[in-house]
């Protein structure tokens, strides 16, 4: 769930920095995603295995048979509450990670819209695209380390429970 939430927010981040119209190669899906999405997902997956968190997933799977035996029924309300709780944790984590890109998108689009209203004769969109991309890549460069660290900390705290 955490990886799917991050994939959704990475698509939003690519859209915020102006990369949504540049489709990349589809890796896991049939729909092509922006080039930023496979980059972030590959980095997070590599870190997931480098930090040995995949062993925590396997330990949790083995220990799940102590909590719920395969012959017993699982209450629907309990499973639904657990699923909703995990989904909300995953999306809050990824929303917190992608929040600088949301703020960047709002500020840049507001500024470009204002400039377009002030100078309607100039094609502001075509002039502003390189600057929007440069600012987005600069923001990605400055926040990528913290983005990956926060995601790994969020996943490891979830796996430790």
Your description of this structure?
- The chain is an all-alpha fold and 161 residues long.
- The protein has one domain.
- The chain contains 5 helices and no strands.
- Helix 4 runs antiparallel to helix 5.
- The chain is elongated, with a radius of gyration of 20 Å.
- The two termini are 15 Å apart.
- The mean pLDDT is 82.
Q: Helices and strands in order, then pairings?
A:
Blueprint: H1 2-16, H2 36-50, H3 53-67, H4 76-118, H5 124-160
Radius of gyration: 20 Å
Mean pLDDT: 82
Order of helices and strands: HHHHH
* Proportion of residues in extended strands: under 5%
Largest sheet: none
Question: Percent range for helical residues?
Answer: over 70%
Instruction: Quickly give the structural class.
Output: mainly alpha
Work out the helix count.
5
Number of strands: 0
Low-pLDDT segments, ≥5 res: none
Q: What overall geometry do the principal axes of the alpha carbons give?
A: elongated
Distance between the termini: 15 Å
Task: Tell me the domain tally.
Answer: 1
